[in-house]
Batch of 3 targets.
Target 1
Amino acid sequence: MVRSIVCLFAAVLMLASCRNKVAIYFGDAEVIEIPKTITESILDVVENYSYVPLNVGDNLAAALGAITKIRVFRDKIYVMDNIFSHKLLIFDKDGTFLQKVSRKGKGPREYVELTTFEIDYHMEEILLKDNVGGKVLVFNLDGDYKHTFECSIWSDGIAVLTNGNILHGILGFPDSRELGSYKLIICDSENNILERHCDASIRYPHMSLSFLNPGYDGTVTFAPQMMNDVFRISDSGVEHIYTINFTDKLDRKELPDPFDVMGFAQNPLARKMTFMGNHADTEDYFCFTYQYNGRGYTVYYNKNTGLAALCDDKLCGQNLTFDEDGNVWGSIMEEGLPYDSDCEKVAELREAIQKSGNPIVVTYTLK
């Protein structure tokens, strides 16, 4: 009798602790088949290809070591370098430097660490995440400071739903029992945890989630690394929308532990990676990048035809994003361009990078 009461009490506690946890179900979703044939050049599947130099001039505040994230909204380009120069900069669409968003420091309007940023298209604000400082700084679209709110969740991705709830994508293992092994945390505007999604312990232990992509329709797409599944979340809940089929490349089960350094050095299969979560979404296209056997690939999936184009061309750009008109934007560094290429466009881009003193931004429209 006593044992039954104890078991019942434990079950009640378990249910109570899971009230704000929502599991993601991996049911039927649209399958994106990776083409076996690589498109010879990105220029074969795009039109209106052009580049925008991000000119430094004499202004050292506009200098970037790299571009690790890019967003384009209205008439502005927002670029982040959280590796070398630790900056979030705003340029116009001609590449003219407009403003540096905040600066590194310990002041109330400064960041200790530039972890990531995102555009809240609904409220028309910039969110700058500072993990070390335990806060999120909010700016208007011109980069002028508005306010700061505390945030103790250590996340590498952030986005906001139209109802004001904040999404956090967890890259590594959470350091809090409250978060558990969940990779997507939803909080209200007061930083209270409402929901937990993507339990890595039941799907893939080393799954991470740092790529959250807000859409102009108020939804957010996210794609946990190492899973090959893509989801869309809105005020009404989570939807499993795509499964990326890599069967002709490599079965994910063949992969060794990606965090096993010795295994990486000894096992050649460790170089064969699958979908790492990089993606961009629009009404007509879903684009994503991945690495396979040491090479980077970009896939452009046409939602209307169900067909995909596979490119390994360095002219694609990195950190792809869409603007409101459906144009693709990405960044290119000189180190990413092949030196043995006889392509005139590659030589043109390299010259533009050397002249501007910064990585450049490319933009194009998919055919």
Target 2
Amino acid sequence: MTATMTEAVSADLRATLKALKLGQMLDTLPDRLTLARQQHMTHADFLQLVLADEVTRREAKSAALRARAAGLDAGMRIDTWDDSAAVRYDRQLWNELVSLRFLDAQHGALVLGPVGVGKTHMACALGHIAVRRRRSVLMAPAARLFKRLKAARLDNTLDAEMRRLTGIDLLICDDLALQPLDATETADFYQLCVERHRKAATIVTSNRTAEEWLPVMADPLLAQSAVDRLTSTCYELVIEGESYRRRQKPGLPVAEKASR
């Protein structure tokens, strides 16, 4: 804040705002005061403007905290997606998923494709949108999710953990079937699918198709039942193309490139 901007807000007003825990309004208040003078705002309009700024700031901070608690990567949002990436997918379907109508209908989405095309980014972006709409979200790699359930068995909290996972509005299971699932993991996957079927929305990312999950699960009957329930209520977004991550690889400095 420059000296001129600081002088626009009196010391008494700064102290009052801080006493009311509105100190962060000071970051924008000088600019808002200038705008109010230029546009000859009424006192009521000015008050509405600065309070709206504060509401927006608090909403953004709250959403960031809830996104962190949900396990969402702060850098994987819809506005950080590189739309020029050399990947192909059904954009009409993607727009439908972004609307989150599937969440209201207790449906889900399978985001499928080879390694590196941005499946996790897209799933995480949907999670951020849901968080901003104040829906409960949890995102975790499948391996970590199943590990958590195994740990819950050891301290006799499995039922409580399963109820918690069942009650989440949007569960995002990342990289399912990246590794084979043992009997316990297959049973947990089955129970999650049964408990959440038509009750809550689930997003699964995988570099295998749903049919390819079956051979890597230990119990064929439970696997088939779980996959059938999941796929019957899920949209399927397939992403193809070059690795999205390669575009994020830092390049060499111009001088260094020239010397090679």
Target 3
Amino acid sequence: MASATALTRPARVPKDYKSDLKPVWCPGCGHFGVQAALFRTFAYLALEPDQVAIISGIGCSSRLPGYTQCYGFHGAHGRALAVATGLKLARPELTVVVVGGDGDGFSIGGNHFLHACRRNVALTYIVMDNAVYGMTKGQPSPTTEASWDSKIAPGGPGVSPLQPLTLALAAGASFVARGYAGDPNGVARLLAEAIQHPGFAFVQVLSQCITYRPEQQNWKQSVHGASLEPTRDAAEAARRLLQDDGLTTGVLYAGERAPYRPAVAAPIDLSTLEEDFVL
């Protein structure tokens, strides 16, 4: 007869969540660090792969669902949060994680981002922010600095960059954090907190694109941890963001607003529903 120890299921390890597909990201891309952090988080939380769904839109970072053993959906440009919201409301027992980039999330997907923060459905949104459209040859993105000069945008875009954490806080996100892809263990700790948070959790990850923005390798020397503990006070979080240099890592805000849960309706009799459409 087998011993009790032999029958005990071994703990999950990061490779349990990795598919056989090899990522096609450029060598040195920060997205490798985010993927490693995400798998470490799943293992730490002992999540079963079939109880996790990873939803994405379009872009380099949005390829991530194909590199996992979890359920995944590679959706249309900017629409990942809409898909994820519907999934979480229909299947609340699932751990739903949305991944994407700054272009997908803050440009064409900006409207969905605002309302996902406002609704506060319990899912986690990870934006791998490299301040450039890396998959389509290096155009400026919503978070690109106004003075960033490039061949495709001589002289720079000339427009102030979007401030994602400020926007998330103002729109109602109940968890707001920032990490750095060069510190996957630090990102994993943030993601563990985000996934366990009972509401919409937004995590911006500074994820370098060394192909089009090689200067971002300097982030390694520039990022710094927050000097203060996370706050539950949105007004205090806003004051801190006014003084933020965009390179502070850690949890900025962890609110206590109850997540949105729709009222459970009685089962619908489809035959009755069909009668309403009879001509």
